[in-house]
Amino acid sequence: MKTLYLIRHAKSDWTTQEEDFQRPLNERGHSDAPRMARHLKSEGYGIEKFVSSPAKRALTTCRYFAETYSNPEIKKVEDLYEPLLEDFSTVLSSLREPLHSVAVFSHNPTISQYASKLLETLMEFPTCAVAVIESTAVQWSAFEEGEITLKAFFTPKDI
């Protein structure tokens, strides 16, 4: 059994003049990300590995989760910024460690599209939303071929 946490970055600051890649979180984003991380942990959800888009807003969101889980090691993957659907599959297939759970931080619209594809239902990710998705697969490379189940879906408004 493998557990994938798909997490869209928290709310970003559109008032800044930064390029898209460097856009930071806004005040609400800085509040929602640690609150969501604490919520997941308090509900008993365990995350062993953190993989993130290197874009500032996604990486900052990821860092809040990594701090909450006392695991500062974050793998940055360029292809999770402006990703294609197959980039998520590639990221999962690249996991070689004996991990049971991984959190992947990325962007819309593709994170919503990937979750929709996996779950065969329409999924819309507001900022800082988390989908907890399980697969019966034994290896990450076979995650998509396993029996896929949505175990939970959280948004900042829900918690």
Structure description:
The protein has one domain: Phosphoglycerate mutase-like (Rossmann fold), CATH 3.40.50.1240. A 6-stranded mixed beta sheet has the order 3-2-4-1-5-6, with helices on both faces. It has 159 residues and is α/β, with parallel strands linked by helices. Helix 1 runs parallel beside helix 2 (56-68). The chain contains 4 helices and 6 strands; from the N terminus they run E-H-E-H-E-H-E-H-E-E. The longest helix is centred in the first third of the chain and has 16 residues, at 27-42. Substrate binds at residue 57. This is Histidine phosphatase family protein.
- CATH homologous superfamily caption: Phosphoglycerate mutase-like
Number of contiguous helices: 4
* Largest sheet data: 6 strands, mixed
Number of DSSP strands? 6
Task: Note the gap between the termini.
Answer: 26 Å
Named at the architecture level, the CATH assignment is 3-Layer(aba) Sandwich
Helix content bin? 25-40%
Flag low-confidence runs: none
Fraction in beta strands? 15-25%
CATH topology: Rossmann fold
Q: On the 0-100 scale, what is the average pLDDT?
A: 96
- Integer count of domains: 1
Q: Which sequence of SSEs, written as H and E, runs from N to C?
A: EHEHEHEHEE
Radius of gyration: 14 Å
CATH hierarchy class name: Alpha Beta
- Shape descriptor: globular
Protein structure class: alpha/beta
Strand order of the biggest β-sheet: 3-2-4-1-5-6
Protein name: Histidine phosphatase family protein
InterPro entries: His_Pase_superF_clade-1, His_PPase_superfam
Pfam families: His_Phos_1 (PF00300)
Binding site for substrate: 57
